[in-house]
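R.M. (postdoc): so does anyone remember the format we settled on? I'll just put the structure tokens first.
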């Protein structure tokens, strides 16, 4: 059944279904950078969840939504990409905002997250959009060029949005 807050946003539902179908031992800790109101992370079945966003008022609203849905295992923190991460996790999500990050900066941080903050078998989830109305149209082949990964397409959406899981080989 569709989550009410996700109606019309199939990419989010597909990410949730893709990640929640992973074995339980691969779903210990997830980070979402640019989590917004937490509509993705709130629906993920992980033991530990961290939602980062650069907007404090958005984080306050996300915390409120998590409280009323009785989610106790989500921590929301202020974070302006591309500052450093500290954690080592199973999954890192960056979707529906990276079209305003320069390709070289995004690629460099993806390499850092992949090598230093992602457990083997884990994934970074990103989206690319091919639409002139967006400031930057990323090419996934450029982002993953130096990564020892398996690239999995989760789906295709409006505005030629594609969502990918960049899986770290075990
Ligand atoms: C359109 S919302 C998407 C939320 C969520 N990822 C989703 O797909 O449902 C984009 C969010 O990314 C955040 N954001 C944009 N640039 C960011 C940056 N450089 N660092 C951290 N968060 C950022 C915005 O504040 C906003 O809450």
């Amino acid at each position: 059944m569709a989550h009410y807050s996700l109606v019309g946003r199939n990419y989010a539902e597909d990410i949730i279904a893709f990640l929640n179908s992973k074995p339980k031992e691969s779903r210990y800790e997830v980070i979402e950078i640019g989590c917004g109101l937490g509509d993705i992370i709130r629906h993920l079945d992980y033991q530990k969840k961290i939602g980062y966003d650069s907007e404090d008022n958005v984080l306050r609203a996300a915390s409120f939504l998590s409280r009323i849905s009785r989610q106790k295992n989500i921590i929301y923190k202020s974070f302006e990409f591309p500052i450093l991460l500290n954690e080592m996790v199973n999954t890192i999500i960056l979707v529906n905002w990276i079209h305003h990050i320069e390709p070289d900066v995004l690629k460099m941080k993806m390499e850092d997250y992949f090598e230093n903050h992602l457990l083997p078998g884990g994934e970074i989830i990103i989206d690319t959009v091919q639409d002139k109305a967006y400031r930057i149209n990323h090419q996934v082949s450029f982002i993953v060029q130096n990564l020892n990964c398996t690239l999995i397409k989760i789906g295709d959406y409006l505005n030629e949005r594609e969502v990918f899981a960049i899986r770290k080989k075990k």
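R.M.: ...and that's the designed sequence above, right after the tokens. Also worth knowing: The pocket of S-adenosylmethionine is lined by residues 12, 33-36, 39-40, 53-55, 58, 79-81, 95-97 (CB under 6 Å). The chain has one domain: 4-168.
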